[in-house]
Amino acid sequence: MILSKLAGRPVLLAAGLVVALVLPWFVYPPVALDIVCWALFAAAVDLLLGFTGLLSFGHAAFWGGSAYATGLIALHSGLPFPVAVLGGAAFAAALAVPIGFLSVRLRGIYFAMVTLAFAQMVYFIANQWRDATGGENGLQGIPRELFGVDLSDPFFFYYAALPFILVGLLVAWRIVRSPFGRVLMSIRDNPNRARALGYSIDRYKLLAFVLSAALSGLAGGLFTVGHGFASLQGVYWTTSGQAVMMVVLGGIGTLWGGAIGAALIVELNDYLATAGFEETGIITGAIFIVVVLLFRRGVWGTARDLIAARTSRARPAAENEDAKVEAPV
Amino acid sequence: MLQQAFNGLVGGAFYALLALGLAVIFGMLGVVNFAHGAFYMLGAFGSFVLLDSFGVNFWLALVIVPVVLGIAGVLLERLFIHRLAPLDPLYNFLFTFGLALILQDLVKRKYGVQSQPYPRPSALDGSIDLGLFTYPTYQVFVLAVSVLVCGAVWVVLTRTRVGMIVRAATERPELSRALGIDVARWVTPVFGFGIALAAFAGVLAAPMRAVNPLMGSDLIITVFAVVVIGGLGSVFGSVAAGFAVGLVSALGNYYVPSLSQTLVFILMAAVLLWRPAGLFGREEAL
């Protein structure tokens, strides 16, 4: 697996780190923050989709649920934003326990529909419980400061938030590379064999679900503090769809591909919004359909395959395993 | 209270029609059609455009719109769904999700988000005395028509040869294939029929509900919960769950208004705990 080695190589990691560090110099800082938050969200969704074989269409519940929890902590406790964000992530993880418990027993399309339905339940609760969530108005004026340092400038907040994003991505990467991650992949590839080997597959899937929810919550909390408000949009099902879209666009099962997908979709939406084109679904939906029909490996997955093809031509039959890219879904 | 129950059944009529279409499409093609709500919305907009631009009345729209959208469904199946069929079913789910986004935003771009007016057909204006209470004639009509349509589909499915084949292919595709039924031949018309049903529900909804681009996307998630409750592969279960969910959410709205919208999802969670395959589903379908 030359390329996954390559991806793990310090060179590529350093390149990614440099891009993350200089991003707000080249991209409008609030947009840069959106990109990294969505990148972490996409990685969390890919942890389930690409590595466990579970398509969750309900992750808006964790991203948006954490947005409200983070916002409430920050508004009412006066604690610094990292505490609020971690509290939001913990809330998302707690929310994922009952939802995951009921969902992981189902497979494939059933799992997708049920997670979607539970997320919609969270949406209705957020909409109805006006005293806590502000209903249609959402939560506004969420403070952005750290021990007296004012971070309301998006440029500075980006650098305050980045360490959390990077730690989140590192956690996702560590999970995938751990023995635990190997078990997840074996469940994805052959659940019956995994069960026969003695793994309690539902418990593994539930744990993966909760970890993924926590990372989604971390991303959603940072996004909320960065924007200073939490809204119903965050818990709506289109948010779940957007995250899945980024993963598929970047490449399922690549973990880093989601970051590319996030960058492309956030940039595109920003460009369209600036141009006064509000119906972004026409364009993003069309791109998504083309990817599903023609480039199922996504941008990063396709690039990886191309490089792999080239390296194996240069050194014929070097490592046949190269061809075996992780089976999507 | 009785009136609430009636409201519930009328609401359930829409769930039942949509769930019925979803169930036959799922059974036959293994596709969960995310765009089902979008076709419901297009059905309502179709009748609005026919009336607004061409002066075509409700009764004609009730025939034209489902036929046109049904044909669109057939083309959709032939051109795209078919191609994705050999892959993991999730790809078709994702494909129809993208399609739903496009359809919804195209209509939004043309007509904006505000609701379009659609008058009730004059023959159905006013209300009927049902003995215990009076009720709008149109709502009674919707309930009657949807019961009739679901009943007709039921009769076709259980009493005719075509129905037998479709039912066999829907509920046990592999076995049917093994018994020499050409399942592939029935796939396209069934998909078109399911879409036509969604469009039909949309036309029925136009005089009663707000005709706007988002009407389908809000409804579809509830319909997903309905088919999960009924059992995804089961045609009967989907229809029964449609009416039952309508009833439960209307009564819930009466007793605990704040819970009304989440009630269906609570119901779904309860059913999943008890029977993961849904009330009328088969365990092996999981």
Describe this structure in words.
- The complex is a heterodimer of chains A (329) and B (286).
- Chain A has 15 helices and 2 strands.
- Chain A has 329 residues and is an all-alpha fold.
- Chain A has a domain at 26-236.
- In chain A, a hairpin with a 2-residue loop joins strand 1 (145-146) and strand 2.
- In chain A, helix 4 (60-77) runs antiparallel to helix 5.
- With 286 residues, chain B is mostly helical.
- Chain B has one domain: ABC transporter involved in vitamin B12 uptake, BtuC (Orthogonal Bundle).
- Chain B is built from 11 helices and 2 strands, in the order H-H-H-H-E-E-H-H-H-H-H-H-H.
- Chain B has a two-stranded antiparallel ribbon with strand order 1-2.
- The model of chain B has no long low-confidence stretch (mean pLDDT 84).
- Classes of the chains: A mainly alpha (329), B mainly alpha (286).
- Chains A and B meet through helix 6, helix 12 and helix 14 of A and helix 3, helix 4, helix 9 and helix 11 of B.
Rg of Cα set of chain B: 19 Å
What's the CATH topology label of chain B?
ABC transporter involved in vitamin B12 uptake, BtuC
Shape of chain A: globular
Task: Find the structural class of chain B using helix and strand composition.
Answer: mainly alpha
Assembly category: heterodimer
Order of helices and strands of chain B: HHHHEEHHHHHHH
Give the total of beta strands of chain B.
2
| CA(first)-CA(last) distance of chain B | 38 Å
Beta-sheet strand percentage of chain B?
under 5%
List segments of chain B where confidence is low: pLDDT < 50 over at least 5 consecutive residues.
none
- Write the CATH architecture name of chain B: Orthogonal Bundle
Domain module count of chain B: 1
Please report the number of helical segments of chain A: 15
Q: Order of strands across the biggest sheet of chain A? A: 1-2
Which structural category do the helix and sheet elements of chain A fall into? mainly alpha
What's the β-strand tally of chain A? 2
